[in-house]
């Protein structure tokens, strides 16, 4: 069996090794089938197994190969623009439960890490969203107020407090949530796989699913070499739903736009700067649409990233852009050298609300991480597992909707990268609330 190649990321260079499992072969049966061994699928497998059910995970490549093992590793307990009050107005009681799940999502993730002693470089030292203009501080205040109304520990930081947190006066204030933090995401995925297997879950890697359908009282899931029959099904493929098997779930695949996200790591920052720049080691992502984000890893490298328009020499252009942005915010750092640069897809949709869908009788999926999949995917995996094992939907954070594919999806996907230009224009406009 050929070894699965991972992007040459800092995570692939540092995560605990994992021995590949055998592909699915022959005819097999399980209580719950899970497609996708990322954060959602593996979290679901852990929860299904601990509730006394058999569970089998089918993964096209290897655990953590997709977005779960490629992202920045920031654990963020809010979404990009799906504010809590809108969830309630749109979905009622299910929306209220979804707000609770989102607000607790970082604690759910870090709780799993502690419970299974996962070697994932986890640091729950907070997430900070600094405001890039005075007007955006008003937006920060609005978000803080909204989350506080639901009982979550959001805090507004003024300019002086922001300078103390970040070690620069480049930002003006912002929202801080102490439950957030960061992880080595590929290490977390592999450790979640280990935890699931320790509870009896079966994981088959290099087993791309070619089809699934409901037949009578069970789901029948097919791969090139085998068939899996299950009472319940969880589809956990998110941004990669249409990438490896385009005909697997076409309506779901066309309801999001996979957007390439670039990540990178600097050389380790010396102690002389480490104690001045972001001394508390929080995860940081600001209020820009053309986002500036960074945090330290366990080796004191700054993990950052960015986006550029166009396909020419993308890696070098985005590397240069991210390095210059760090130098702009932290002049004493200079222009840092990037030792690792990698990319992967995130799943975006038109209003940046994640979607939960029912595939059929006891078949579930969610899609549309919109760059917030680490904490949310882990939390939703647990929730989908509870649904698949019989917990009433009225008790769960599952505001179910019908998929809404983008018209002319191929064209939308082609032009989506130019959306960055509009975001950059919006970044220069002052917020009025």
Explain what the structure shows.
The N and C termini lie far apart (58 Å). This protein has 13 helices and 18 strands. It has 433 residues and is of the alpha/beta class. The longest helix has 23 residues, at 93-115. The strands form three sheets. Strands 1, 2, 8, 9, 10, 11, 17 and 18 form an eight-stranded mixed sheet that branches. An eight-stranded mixed sheet has the order 5-6-4-13-14-15-12-16. The mean pLDDT is 95. Helix 2 runs parallel beside helix 11 and helix 3 crosses helix 4. The protein has two domains: 21-125 and 182-255 and 352-402, FAD/NAD(P)-binding domain; 127-178 and 257-348 and 408-433, D-Amino Acid Oxidase, subunit A, domain 2 (D-Amino Acid Oxidase, Chain A, domain 2, 2-Layer Sandwich), CATH 3.30.9.10.
At the first level of CATH, the class of the largest domain is: Alpha Beta
Q: Total strand count, please?
A: 18
**Structural class, from helix and strand content?**
alpha/beta
How many structural units, i.e. domains? 2
> CATH topology of the largest domain, what is it called?
FAD/NAD(P)-binding domain
Q: How many DSSP helices?
A: 13
The fourth-level CATH homologous superfamily of the largest domain is: FAD/NAD(P)-binding domain
**CATH architect. name of the largest domain:** 3-Layer(bba) Sandwich
- Proportion in β-strands: 15-25%
Q: Report the major sheet.
A: 8 strands, mixed
- Taking pLDDT < 50 over at least 5 consecutive residues as the criterion, the unreliable ranges are none
Please state the CA-atom Rg, rounded to the nearest Å: 21 Å
The end-to-end distance, rounded to whole angstroms, is 58 Å
Shape: globular
Query: What value does the average pLDDT take?
Result: 95
Helix content: 25-40%
